[in-house]
Each structure stands twice: as C-alpha cells, then as structure tokens.
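Chapter review: from sequence to fold.
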Amino acid sequence: MHHINVKSHLFDAFLAGWTVWFALGVLGFWLVGSPGKAIRATTRLWVRGVLFGLRHVVRLDYVETGRDLIPAEPCLIVCNHQSTWETLAFLVLFPNVAIVAKQELLRIPIIGWYLRKSPMIIIDRETGSKALKTMLNQSREALAGGRSILIFPEGTRMKELEPIKFKRGVELLYAKLGTPVLPVLVNSGKFWGLGRSSKRGGTITVSYLPPIPPGMPAELFARKAEAQMEAERLRLT
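The token string follows.
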C-alpha cells in the first residue's frame, strides 16, 4: 500500500509541474482572442501529458473495446462516472468532444480556464430548468459545429459496485437532439475512484457499446442504455 502511495504522490507532483507550463498559454491565448480550436488542441496536449504520467509513474493504462461501434457522425455519448480519469481521457478519445460538466470543474486552477474556453457545456445545477435549457441550447450548438457531446447521466461520481442509474437530464437531450447515442462503460473506479486515497496501477477498460438510434420514447431509451451499461459493468467487475 505504501508503494502505491509513493507512486500516487509522485504523479501528483508531476501533474502540478506539467500544469504550470499551461499557465503561460492562458496569457498567449487571451491576447489573441481565445480561439476555441487552438485551445482544445492545447487541452488535449495537457491530457496526453497526464495520461503519460499515469502510464509511466503510476503504471495505470487503458484499453478500448468496440471502437468500431462509434457512429460516423457527431453523437451523444453517455458514460458512467467513477473517477476524474474519464473526464480527462475523453478529451483525447474524442478530440473535439463537448463535455456536459458541473460548475465545480471550472474551479481547477489553469485547466478550468481551458475548459471554459473550449467551450464545454457548463451547467449550474442550482438553476433547475434554466440549466436544462442552457444544456440543450449549447448541445445543439456543439452538434452543429461537428462536435459530439459527452454526458455523465448518473450526475456525479459513483462507487464501482454501484448499479447504473440515470438522472433525468439525459432523457431531455435524447428526445430533443435527434442524434444517435453511444453508451460507454468504464471501470476506472477500480484504480482511481471514490474512497480511494491513491491511484493504483492496472488497466482501465473503456467499452463502447452498440449505439441506440434516435426516435425511441425517451424513457425507453434511458432504460435500454442503463441495461446495456449495467450488463457491461457486471462483466468487468
């Protein structure tokens, strides 16, 4: 256990040092009007550095299965949420993805600025129906710009043994956007999850599951996606 802690602390030190370099970019981008495309490319570079650190310091890597199932056109991606890992990794797995994220994400020093300007779809859950309207409008804009949307339908990080259960916002997006949905299941909680004080070595599995076409009743879609993801979660447990 002590060995794991040392690696985890070394990674945290690496992460702090790596992130400091990106503070310089904030000023540069601010001076040239914060171009979204360039900011997204820089954010991906930062994430690649984070994944490099996890791979070489913590010995935490990942594999993808079912990548051929990803729709050719921009789509709505629904993924379970067990760790900070998937919030970061998806910026590389889907290079132009717009993540539906909570306000708190923007409080991360330096990188919060990049995420705000990327732009991500930031929701303030305190505002209720106004938040849903904002999420829908920004999702439409992202799709029109050729970007897929990623939402964590459980609404917050869950423990790895917790069954998959969606909150309501995702049904609205499915009903209104008319785009295919790609369910994705990750088991990142085994290695970097709630209740774990340190990150552990191993291999995270990212499972892409069969897409769900648009046009189903929203409630039925949600149950189908939950069932697909829950079956995969049990398979990987």
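Two observations follow directly from the output. The longest strand covers residues 202-208. The longest helix spans residues 2-31.
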